[in-house]
């Protein structure tokens, strides 16, 4: 019903406007008595065979919601009722910022993809932390970045602020240096600045009463040589793992009319490349660290392929938008069938 009736209606409107509409709808309908229970009965699968223990955390199932959907931790409770094993909020920055000018999100219907150039629009790390203090049982990742106005030479300070703000309210951290929508941000993926950033955060982390797993989110556009550098950096800094991958700046083999829009491309065109990156990191590192696989998961088969390539967990975003609220359940059922 979603793909045949609901999605065609939603896709007639601006994607960012529909995003906010969906947020409001889920927030309001969950206030109706028994609706949360109904949602859980429809979309949640609980089975011991789905449980995973990764970087010291216990996940009810391996399917998570990628960062960017619930930037400000406003809907994590409601979204958990759609079956996700974990929710990643953000990307958050130290200070609130409005992001890039609108229009900044575009559907590529023929390619089953999205292009966004949101630019880390968020209300700030401390505001997200306030909301997350109410969380009791949902496993939360905190995706952190720098403010647009912060020069790269001062970026570490921004990440430290976000780390301190979220430390007590998230289960793991994700360092985002791979978004193409903040000017010069991807320069922080170069070996020397990245090593410095991650080591500084890890030192801060290890000084806390209980260290949190820190993961690095990387771009799919890195060369094999750069990916080998990533492996070396992860091993040297001893962070917990990698999220592969973020959106791409590539525009190869696209058919939709708005394919030339600037920003990060997500969805089906990313399926093959993100899986290649996962497999490369897993094989070349000797499975030395966990990988969360994300990028172009539009079917249960795509999810299984990423797990088989070396991912310990997976995340969805664009596939969730195209496939609908029952998508998480479909993936988890497929994982059970293949277990």
From TrEMBL:
It is a peripheral membrane protein. It is found in: Cell membrane; Membrane. Monomer. The keyword Lipoprotein does not apply. The active site is at residue 179. It is an enzyme of class 1 (oxidoreductase). It comes from Moheibacter sediminis. This is Dihydroorotate dehydrogenase (quinone). HAMAP family: DHO_dh_type2 (MF_00225). The gene is pyrD.
């Amino acid at each position: 019903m979603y793909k045949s009736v609901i999605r065609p209606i939603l896709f007639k409107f601006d994607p960012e406007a529909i995003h906010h509409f969906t947020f409001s709808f889920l927030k309001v309908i969950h206030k109706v008595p028994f609706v949360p229970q109904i949602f859980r009965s429809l979309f949640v699968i609980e089975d011991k065979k789905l449980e995973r223990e990764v970087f010291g955390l216990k996940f009810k199932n391996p399917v998570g919601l990628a960062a960017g959907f619930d930037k400000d931790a406003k809907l994590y409770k409601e979204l958990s009722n759609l079956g996700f094993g974990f929710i990643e909020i953000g990307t958050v920055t130290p200070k609130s910022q409005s992001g890039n000018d609108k229009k900044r999100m575009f559907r590529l219907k023929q390619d089953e993809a999205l292009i966004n150039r949101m630019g880390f629009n968020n209300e700030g790390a401390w505001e997200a932390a306030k909301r997350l203090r109410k969380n009791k049982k949902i496993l939360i990742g905190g995706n952190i970045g720098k403010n647009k106005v912060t020069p790269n030479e001062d970026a570490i300070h921004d990440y430290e602020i976000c780390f301190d703000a979220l430390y007590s309210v998230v289960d793991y951290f994700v360092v985002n240096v791979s978004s193409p929508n903040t000017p010069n941000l991807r320069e922080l993926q170069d070996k020397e600045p990245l090593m410095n950033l991650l080591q500084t955060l890890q030192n801060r982390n290890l000084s806390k009463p209980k260290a949190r797993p820190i993961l690095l989110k990387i771009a799919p556009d890195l060369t094999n040589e750069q990916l080998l550098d990533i492996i070396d950096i992860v091993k040297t800094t001893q962070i917990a793992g990698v999220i592969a991958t973020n959106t791409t700046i590539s525009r190869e083999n696209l058919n939709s009319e708005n394919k030339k829009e600037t920003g990060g491309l997500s969805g089906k065109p990313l399926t093959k490349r993100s899986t290649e990156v996962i497999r490369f990191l897993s094989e070349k590192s000797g499975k030395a660290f966990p990988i969360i696989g994300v990028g172009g998961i539009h079917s249960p088969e795509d999810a299984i392929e990423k797990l088989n390539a070396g991912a310990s967990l997976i995340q969805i975003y664009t596939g969730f938008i195209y496939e609908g609220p029952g998508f998480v359940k479909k993936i988890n059922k497929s994982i059970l069938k293949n277990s």
